[in-house]
Each structure stands twice: as structure tokens, then as C-alpha cells.
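Teaching assistant here, posting this on the class forum so everyone can see the example we discussed in section. The complex has two components, and the goal was to see what a joint structure prediction looks like when all of them are supplied at once.
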Amino acid sequence: MNFGVLVFNQVEELDFVGPWEMLTMWRKNANGPENCIIVGQSLEPIICAKGLSINPHASFATCPPLDYLLIPGGQGTRLEVGNPVLIDFIANQAKNCKAVLSVCTGSFVLHAAGLLTGRKATTHWGSLERLRALGDVTVVEQRYVQDGNIWSSAGVSAGTDLMLAFIASVDGEAAAGKVQFAAEYYPSLVKYGGFENHAQAPAYIKST
Amino acid sequence: MNFGVLVFNQVEELDFVGPWEMLTMWRKNANGPENCIIVGQSLEPIICAKGLSINPHASFATCPPLDYLLIPGGQGTRLEVGNPVLIDFIANQAKNCKAVLSVCTGSFVLHAAGLLTGRKATTHWGSLERLRALGDVTVVEQRYVQDGNIWSSAGVSAGTDLMLAFIASVDGEAAAGKVQFAAEYYPSLVKYGGFENHAQAPAYIKST
């Protein structure tokens, strides 16, 4: 099994490293995919949105056929939705993927590849209106949402919850539990500064 | 202000990227340090514990004096506690740091640098007994703990909560709230597989 994690310049760091940690803990502790691959358009270093520099494992040219593909978000998505090489790579790989997942504004890249039409999806709270304005996506204000073989999550840190739910779906609750325990993912419940009552806070935050 | 994040081969990915995301969101959205620096012994690429390849911004030789230093964990800490070059770097920088923080088994590296003697500290649940066995650390089973200018957190994902609490301490609750909201860090409360009742689960998990 091959699980690809797409990266591009100005990708948001936690958008892909949160899921990456859960994915690779899945490989280590249960029945996760043997090949977990960071895929970039080329093998050149990628500069992330907050300045971290990373090196892809594979380029579009060397990437094997993927069983699963995750598309993170970040400022770079504004440019990448208009990058035909990247969009073609996603569209072509997706034809044979068992599931395609997005985090944060990665949903706009999914949309550009024709994968969100008529689907339920979500994104970072700051981009919900922009996703609605596309017109052909049913936008939900959940932490993450599955619609068939397309999964999407809210902003940045929500990709971690998305990936755990995905693992539970594919490999069972016990497998997701092993990953959660290994990563000690039992987050603090502290909410700072009252932003859960912000006018732009998504519904799932307000309701908790 | 200079905030350094230490990296080394076999560093656990989320241990440093969780805090990194909060740190750089702090810089962007409130009064966080202007210079956020990934520091390695050299500028050579670092291969993380789960295979991610990253490029440090600074080496020990080029790193400026740090105001804050965060030390993540991972399998690599088993080797690095015996690396005098790395331990000396930490011990020397720490003399002028306003605070030093560790995530997961990064606490063992802090200890090797002489910074945990007589202090309260914590680590990944799987290493709590090993930390207690050092004999001169008061080990607590909390998500994170502050003892003076030394902060430490539980495993892997706990570094994110540590950094938010640290931001609230240094820059106030509203600043931490801006960071939390920007990173949409309102995690799911789902616990998979019942591992919170595992014999080795730390006290703070059992009590929630």
C-alpha cells in the first residue's frame, strides 16, 4: 500500500505533519500502509508557510501509484489551484485511489482537480465562505467530514483528528486507539481568550 | 527575540512541528519572537523518526544567542543524551535563556544538560519510569508542567498544548487564543479503543 502526502511551497506545517505523525504511527503500531511518501512536484526543498524547509521523498515523476492521497492546505494553495501540473497529478492519481483526503484549504486544491463537485466538504473557518462561493460544494462546519471516498477537515490542527477517524474507518477502532495512545493524543480542553464565540467560529466549535 | 527549536536525527516529527506551528502562529498573530529558528548540530538534512527529511536553519556554530529553546523528543534522544557537542550547546544556551522547554523524551536531553535536577518534569507515558529512575527529578503525570523557567510536556502531541500554555504565560490569554483560533486547535474529544484505561496510561488521561 502507498500513502502519499502532497507538499508544495507555502504548505502549512501542521496541516501535513499532524496527519503524517498519525499515518506513520499507524504503520508502526497497526496495519497502516507500508510506504508513506512525501510527494512534491520536484525533489527540490519545499519552504513551508511558516519557514520550515523539507525534502520530498518522491517527485511527481518518481511517485508510484497511490492507494491514498492527502492534500494539506496553507497559503500556497492559492497558487497551486492554478498549477496544471499539480492538478493533473492529483486528478490522475485520484482515479485509482481508495480515498483522497484534504486538510484546511487543501479542499480548494481537491476542488480544482474536480473531486469535490456535488460533495460535502469543509475547510479552515476563515475560508468557509470562499468554499461556499464555489457553488457546487455542500459546505459543512464540522471538524472533519467523509463523503464517500473523499474526506476533508477544518483548519490546520484538524487534520490530526481527520486521520485518526480515517484510520478507525479503514483499520478499526483498536488500531486508531493504538495510534492515539502512542502519539499521546489526549489534548487539553483549555480554550483561551473566548474565540470559540467569535462571529466566524465554525458551528462545531460553538456547539462544544 | 530568538526562539530556537532543536532538531537531531530520529527526532519525532510532531514533537517539534506541533510547537513550531503554535510558535510561528504566535509570531504572525500576536507578539511572538521575531526569529523562530530550527537548529541542528550541522546544516545537513535531518531524518526524523518517521522518515520526514528537514533542513535546519542554523547550525550550532551559526545559531545566535537564544531567548527560548525547545527540545523535542523521539528515538534519537537515546543517542543524543550521550552527545557532548549537543549537550554542551544546550547547557551553554540555557544560561541566558528566559525559558527552556522539552516535549516527550526531550526531557532526558534536558536532564543530561543538568537542567532538571531537583525539578518537576514529565515525559511520554512509556518513559515515565525511566525518568523516575534518574532519581533527581520529581516526575509528574500531567499533560505539561512548569517549574520555574523549565517547562516539559508529555508525549508527542502534548507539545502543542505546552506551547499554547507557554504563550498564555508570556503574552497573555488573548494572544494564546488568537493562536488557538488561527490554528483551529479545538480538538475532537473522541477516545478510540479504550487506551485511556491502559495500565500505563498517565494520571491526567485517566482523570479526564
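For the discussion questions: Chain A touches chain B through 65 residues (CB under 8 Å). The mean pLDDT of chain A is 97. Think about how each of these relates to the inputs above.
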